[in-house]
Specification:
The chain has one domain. Helix 1 crosses helix 3. It contains 3 helices and no strands. About 55% of the residues lie in helices and about 0% in strands.
Length: about 70
Amino acid sequence: MDLSTVLREVRLRRVVLERAALEMVCACLYYDLADCIDSTSDQELVDIINRNYDCEICGLKRSISHE
């Protein structure tokens, strides 16, 4: 696999993560995420997709407790 193919796959994976996170984030954090999505790490996007965060605004709780 050449470098351009690898880079294309990485970019595609990132686009998929971004779209999925925007679909899964609670409504009160949607615009905050949309505004800073370029600086949000892949792991943070995965956490949003997996609902692994608590929202202090609406009270949404993690779907899986890691405490």
